[in-house]
Amino acid sequence: MNKRIAVGITGASGAVYGVRLVQELLRCGHLVHLMITEAGWQVFRDELGWETDNREQLIKEKLQRDFPGQLHYWTLRDFSCPAASGSYRCDGMAVVPCSMGTLSGLAHAASGNLLERCADVMLKEGRKLVLVPRETPLHAIHLENMLKLAQTGARIVPAMPGFYHQPETMDDLINFVVGKVLDSLDIDHALFRRWGD
């Protein structure tokens, strides 16, 4: 069954995780509401080598082209996004990667932009919210914010790839983390070999 999933990509290192998640969701036929922070756009440029001057065109070329009607891109000030309302039946949200600044905003229900508002809606409605922090080392405030969010119902899935499936490529490592996010959203996938398979 196709789902409606919100995806936030922030300025933490590891933008490729968010991109791969969106690609996999679209490939499996799910509807995606995508939000990208300003720092997230910078990481696209720095880590992926993407030219980000024309953002809407970049989204069309890199993600939307093969999946017409499935991907909706929203700027952080466009609160007309359906996922910003609890009355919209969004099946879940993932923030991949999740910067410590965004994590702090979420832990304190700041709702200072669309991404934070959508995540807050997931928590208040008791829906799935998956956060993928990508920071090291972590200090006590980072850990306190993660604990607060976990106690509120968020799932914390750090970008820590496993090695028991004997990865051979960078893609194998990326797919492991993205697969764990999909598991947390209850979405079937075959991105990595499971223990015992």
UniProtKB/TrEMBL annotation:
<keyword id="KW-0637">Prenyltransferase</keyword>
<feature type="binding site">
    <location>
        <begin position="11"/>
        <end position="13"/>
    </location>
    <ligand>
        <name>FMN</name>
    </ligand>
</feature>
<comment type="function">
    <text>Flavin prenyltransferase that catalyzes the synthesis of the prenylated FMN cofactor (prenyl-FMN) for 4-hydroxy-3-polyprenylbenzoic acid decarboxylase UbiD. The prenyltransferase is metal-independent and links a dimethylallyl moiety from dimethylallyl monophosphate (DMAP) to the flavin N5 and C6 atoms of FMN.</text>
</comment>
<dbReference type="GO" id="GO:0016831">
    <property type="term" value="F:carboxy-lyase activity"/>
</dbReference>
<feature type="binding site">
    <location>
        <begin position="99"/>
        <end position="102"/>
    </location>
    <ligand>
        <name>FMN</name>
    </ligand>
</feature>
<feature type="domain" description="Flavoprotein">
    <location>
        <begin position="3"/>
        <end position="185"/>
    </location>
</feature>
<dbReference type="GO" id="GO:0106141">
    <property type="term" value="F:flavin prenyltransferase activity"/>
</dbReference>
<feature type="binding site">
    <location>
        <position position="164"/>
    </location>
    <ligand>
        <name>dimethylallyl phosphate</name>
    </ligand>
</feature>
<keyword id="KW-0808">Transferase</keyword>
<dbReference type="InterPro" id="IPR004507">
    <property type="entry name" value="UbiX-like"/>
</dbReference>
<feature type="binding site">
    <location>
        <position position="37"/>
    </location>
    <ligand>
        <name>FMN</name>
    </ligand>
</feature>
<keyword id="KW-0288">FMN</keyword>
<keyword id="KW-0285">Flavoprotein</keyword>
<dbReference type="Pfam" id="PF02441">
    <property type="entry name" value="Flavoprotein"/>
</dbReference>
<dbReference type="InterPro" id="IPR036551">
    <property type="entry name" value="Flavin_trans-like"/>
</dbReference>
<feature type="binding site">
    <location>
        <position position="180"/>
    </location>
    <ligand>
        <name>dimethylallyl phosphate</name>
    </ligand>
</feature>
<dbReference type="InterPro" id="IPR003382">
    <property type="entry name" value="Flavoprotein"/>
</dbReference>
<protein>
    <recommendedName>
        <fullName>Flavin prenyltransferase UbiX</fullName>
        <ecNumber>2.5.1.129</ecNumber>
    </recommendedName>
</protein>
<keyword id="KW-0456">Lyase</keyword>
<feature type="binding site">
    <location>
        <position position="134"/>
    </location>
    <ligand>
        <name>FMN</name>
    </ligand>
</feature>
<comment type="similarity">
    <text>Belongs to the UbiX/PAD1 family.</text>
</comment>
